[in-house]
Each structure stands twice: as structure tokens, then as C-alpha cells.
Amino acid sequence: MTTLQTPTNAPKKTPCSDQLERLGWQDRVLLAPMSGVTDRPFRDYIRNLGQGQVVTEMIASEAAIRQVKDSRKLNQAIDDEPGIIVQLAGTEPALIAEAARIMEARGAHTIDLNFGCPARKVVNKASGSALMRDEALCGAIFDTVRAAIQVPLTVKMRLGWDDDTLNAPKLARMAQEAGLDGITVHGRTRCQFYKGEANWEKVELVQAATSLPLLVNGDIRTLADIDLALKQSAAVGVMIGRAAQDRPWLLDQAVDHLAQRTPKPAPKAAERHAGLCDLIERMLCYHGPAHGLRQVRKHVSSALVGIDGAGAYRKAANTTDDPAVMLRLINDFFVQAAAQEQTPIKPDANLALAA
Length: 355
Ligand SMILES: Cc1cc2nc3c(=O)[nH]c(=O)nc-3n(C[C@H](O)[C@H](O)[C@H](O)COP(=O)(O)O)c2cc1C
Description:
The chain has 16 helices and 8 strands. The chain has helices at 17-23, 40-48, 61-66, 69-77, 93-106, 120-123, 135-148, 168-177, 200-209, 223-233, 242-246, 250-258, 269-287, 289-303, 310-319, 323-341, and strands at 29-31, 59-60, 85-89, 110-115, 153-160, 182-189, 214-217, 237-240. Flavin mononucleotide is lined by residues 32-37, 57-58, 87, 114, 116-117, 156, 186, 217-220, 240-243.
């Protein structure tokens, strides 16, 4: 069992590029795991847009082991996905370790432990951010999973359960002592859910407690946010969630920005249109027509923004059960968006998909 120790102020070594490469963090920009969002089609879509590392949505350890219908699909999704970082959720150290072994054997590059999910259905099972309330159990999970796998092991957590228990620095230290390789911190407590603002300065207290590479997460929406979050947290890189769903090209821009290259401009309407159609095709193919259409709606909502009357397009596109109608509405939206940019696109582009 890991012994608890208070944070020290020992001098830190800046993580070297070999260390980041080993973790799969070499771009210093990661797509945050988002259940129901960062599925295989979305991960492939993000990869096709350029740089930035992707992480699976969380996979429940028990389900990964039992290989029931839905989890079998989640598990198989990582096959033939080099460099994939797999996030596991769970409560029982031995079960998480077993799931980690299975994922390692399937080719996971890195295993990430979910200590951050605030959802009631997760914390009610004492999983996700609820784990942060039981430091002894956290220590047992670190030790047991570390001993079970050879690939890098990381943990994603929040600042603590609530403002009175900001124990992320202590857990970070425990993670380091147990031989973990990296940490991500979302700068909110569990009790905040997604309210208020992420506190990047408090993330710095976690970085100060460990010499492990750390990613700062929460409310990073722009390149300027990246600069400020890194400055305030002293983290080595960023993890971006919701903003990457709204603007999937942000990860590629962020990697260039951090490498002091000029980022590519945001894509024009025609490119965004083609990208969305590509994603829809992937999702319908992967999830099947009915479930795929439901899953795709959140991406349609994120994409159809920025012009007068966008709300009406979103509503119409997201209430139809007919993919052809959805694609026609999306086409009409982007014709208008392109007209506003004064870069007309071919009105019937991508309607072939609807045939
Ligand atoms: C729809 C949704 C699903 C999420 N699912 C997960 C998850 O599976 N695992 C996890 O660690 N965090 C999950 N999160 C939290 C995100 O990874 C991230 O920590 C949070 O959204 C804050 O980052 P952001 O402001 O960049 O979105 C989820 C968040 C959202 C919005």
C-alpha cells in the first residue's frame, strides 16, 4: 500500500520529449475523454484533421472484462488504433487491473484511470471522482494496476471532491510514488460539476507536488486560453474537451501554436461542411443507422452555428429520423454560411451520401 505523504517542494525536472513520447503526449495537446462523444468515428475524424492525441471515452472495467455487447464494441474500437490512450473507470483495484491487462493486450499505448467523472450514475457506484474521497482505495488502485501492466499508466482527476477537500496534490504525490507516469487535472471540484470556471492556478498546486508530467484541463477554448492555462498551472500540456467538439480543428491549431508554428486558419464553410458529412458517414457506418443518427445529433448541434437562423436549421436537422433530410438541411445551412463568407460552395456537395 502506498504511504501518504504531504507534497514537497523538491526541485522539478522539466519532462523531456522522450518521457512525453513514451506517454503518447508528445504533441502536448490531448483530446479529453468524453463519454458518448469521443467514440471511434470521432477519434478518426479528429486524427484526419491533423495533430493532437486522442483518448477513448471511459470504459467501465467490469464491462470490459465481461465483454457484453456494448463494451465489446468499445473494446474492439481500439483495435488497429496505434497510439491510442484508453481510459478505464472502476472501483475494484483487481478488476481495473484485469481490464488494464486486457486493453494492454489489445494494443493500448497508455492506460488512463478515471478519477474525475462527476456524473451521479458513476459516483453512486463510488467510481470516477468519488474515488478521490477514499485515498487508501486510490493508493490500492495505483499499486494494483501499476503492477499489472507494462505500458504507461496515468490518472485524470479533479481538484478534489469539494472546496474543503482539495486533495489532488496529495493524490498526485501518491501516484508518483506508486510509479504512475502522468497526471491530468480538471481545475474544478466534483461538487462544482461544470459550474463556475476551471481554476488553473489551483492546478499549479498539483504540479508543485509532483515531478510527473501534468496536463491542465477545463475551459480551454482558445489559443490564448492555452497560454494562460499553461502559465498559471505550470503544466506541460493541455487536454481539451468541449471546445474540440465545437471546433475540432482546435487541437491541430493548438499543437502548432505550442510548437511556435503558425496555426492553420479555421476552416471555411465548405471544409466544415465536408468534414461534418465525413463524420456523419463514419458514425452511421459504425453505430448503424438508427443509433448513429441519434449519436450524430450532438455534433450537428455543435457544427450548425454562426449564421442568422442557425437555430432553426439545428432543430430541423436534429428532429428528423431520415439521414437524407438531415444531410439536405446541413447542405442548405452551409450554402448560407458560405454565402456569408462570400465563398460560395456547390449547393449539392456531399448529397451523394444521402442517396
Ligand atoms: C459529454 C461529456 C462526457 C465526459 N466523459 C468523460 C469521461 O468519459 N471520462 C473523463 O475522465 N471525463 C469525462 N468528461 C470530462 C472531460 O474529460 C473534461 O474533463 C471536462 O469536459 C472539462 O474539460 P473542457 O472544459 O475542455 O470540456 C466528460 C465531459 C463531457 C462534457
